[in-house]
Design goal:
The chain is an alpha+beta fold. The chain has helices at residues 18-27, 78-88, 107-122, 131-148, 170-175, 184-188, 256-264, and strands at residues 2-3, 32-34, 43-45, 48-53, 59-64, 151-155, 158-162, 191-193, 200-202, 218-224, 228-233, 247-252. The protein is 28% helix and 20% strand. Helix 3 packs antiparallel against helix 4.
Length: 272
Amino acid sequence: IIEPQDIHTLDPQRMSFIPDFRTGYALYEGLVRWDIHSDDCHVVPAAARSWSISPDQTVYTFEIDPAGRWSNGDPVTASDFAYAWQRALLPDTAADYTQLFFCIRGAEEFFQWRSDQLRRYSEQPPQERTEAAAQRLRDELDARFRETVGIEVVDSQTLRITLDRPTPYFLDLCAFGPFLPVHRETVEQWVDLDHTSGSIRQRHGWTKPGHHVGNGPYVLKTWRFKRDMRLEKSPTYRDPFLARSSSIQILIIEDPNTAILAFESGIADWHT
């Protein structure tokens, strides 16, 4: 595959560009996915093997497929989605698609609450902004999320989402890149609390080869910036038949003429 520009990020909640999403869908699996082989590209089960919708169209209950595994062998759970969606709602993450989550009950209120919390903290005297104070801020943040946002982990395999109002395209949102899950234990190894601002400082080394953990049909093997990226079929993915190639080589060729020549000469099979 030829890409005209390199991937900006493999952090689903921070993705914004088409190459990022295209690669993200190979490395992660959302609750649902689009059936790209159908005429209408309708939504089909993915990490969630089934779901139900309340009569008033505001409560979605997803049953996570117990066969789902992360590339390190850990089971995919409802908590993985709740954690990822909380990241998307934090101003600390600076996600481009945060507002898409505002259809969830309490989500917009939570985002504003966190912004106000950080503002109040920054107005405190410097001597009061300590590591312990920043940790208390995060503990309060996690409790507030559980109490006010309509994202409920019923049990390890059941995720319940309550919306503010009926949202006919909500399942399509669940298939979109920023709604993909992340492996909490991996991400948290690269998280620090900035005691001067109270914000969660998210380093992104976990998205690099050797550290990345995904739940999609492929795993990240190599990534040479502005040169190439290699994905290989995941041995832990729940449905190996969805990965039709044993590997994917992504070439970064910025010059259009060079890209066309590479395609026509057979160096690549697909030019995006």
